[in-house]
Every structure is written in C-alpha cells, then in structure tokens.
Specification:
By secondary structure, the chain is mainly α. It folds into two domains: 60 residues, Orthogonal Bundle (Helix Hairpins), CATH 1.10.287; 85 residues, HscB, C-terminal domain (Monooxygenase, Up-down Bundle), CATH 1.20.1280.20. 74% of the residues lie in helices and 0% in strands. The longest helix is centred in the last third of the chain and has 32 residues. It starts with a helix and ends with a helix.
C-alpha cells in the first residue's frame, strides 16, 4: 500500500492539504500507540509501526517537493543521485550566476536591498520551475515524468540556495 492509498487519496500531485491534515489526524488517533498501552506486546509493536507509517506518509505528502519525488519513485522513474551533474548547460550557467549573486550580497552597499533582490529572484524562478514540474507530473507520460524528475532536481538546488541565503542573512544581521 502506498502513501496515497494509506491516506485514502488519489495519486495526484494537487492535494487538498486541509483534507490531508484531517485524514492524518484521524488515522493517527486510531493507530496511536497510547491507545494500545494495555494491549499485548505484539499489539503495541504493531501500533508503533502503523503510527510511524502514517506519520511518514503525512510528512512526505504534505511537502510538495517530497510528494513529487515520491510520485516519481512510484512511477518507476530513475532518480539520479544529487551528485550527478546537470546536462542542461543553461541551468549550469544559471547556477553559477545565482551563486555569484549570493556571494555579492556580503559586499553590497545596501545589504537589505541585496538580500531582498536575491530572495525575489530565487522565489520567482522557483515558482516558475515548480509550476512546470507540476504540469509535467499531471501529464504523467514517460517523457513528462523524466522532465519532472530533472526539474525536481533543479528545485532542490533552489531550495539549497535559499537555505544558504538564510544562513548568510543570519550571519550578516546577527548583531
């Protein structure tokens, strides 16, 4: 049983997150180990396993990036390692430009404005790529899934850059 089935959802990228949370809470109440505190050791162990499975399913499906990756795995898409470089030369160039932009924040005359600019660029590019990946996942063809996989990897790069920007912000504004 996959996570979508476990939570009674259609296997699709677009989810009603409120319904997902409600289903999760209902399932968690039903299988929570505390309900089996007076049960046999086997019942307690089974409750822990079920509770963990429900929690893993929820954590995966509530996060759009993890959900996309999970869907691609279910579709038997070969997910390359994070260390495999991109074959898209324009994206490789964009990576370098974004890293340079991030490095220049430290030396900007107006650090606040520089941070804001980088944030806006990262968010705009992430959103555009996210929408493209979402369309590809909904198409669900072999070619679209392969493209969605490549875009998912790019989205993870943007997430890492955003984390680096947050760390840089903390460093620069930590008075």
């Amino acid at each position: 049983m996959n996570y979508f089935q476990l939570l009674g959802l259609d296997s699709q990228f677009n989810l009603d997150t409120k319904a997902l949370a409600q289903t999760y809470q209902n399932l968690q109440r039903a299988v929570h180990p505390d309900r089996f505190a007076h049960g046999t050791e086997q019942e307690k162990l089974l409750a822990v396993k079920k509770s963990t499975l429900v929690n893993d399913a929820y954590q995966t499906l509530k996060n759009p990036i993890k959900r996309a990756e999970y869907m691609l795995v279910l579709r038997n898409v070969d997910m390359p390692s994070e260390q495999v470089s991109f074959s898209d030369n324009s994206f490789l160039m964009r990576q370098m430009e974004l890293r340079e932009m991030l490095a220049e924040v430290k030396h900007a005359d107006d650090v606040d404005a520089a941070v804001l600019e980088v944030t806006q660029v990262l968010e705009a590019e992430f959103e555009q790529l996210f929408k493209t990946m979402q369309t590809q996942l909904n198409e669900n063809t072999e070619a679209a899934n392969a493209l969605a996989c490549e875009n998912l990897r790019k989205l993870k790069f943007y997430q890492k850059l955003h984390v680096e920007l947050d760390k840089l912000e903390d460093l620069l504004f930590d008075d």
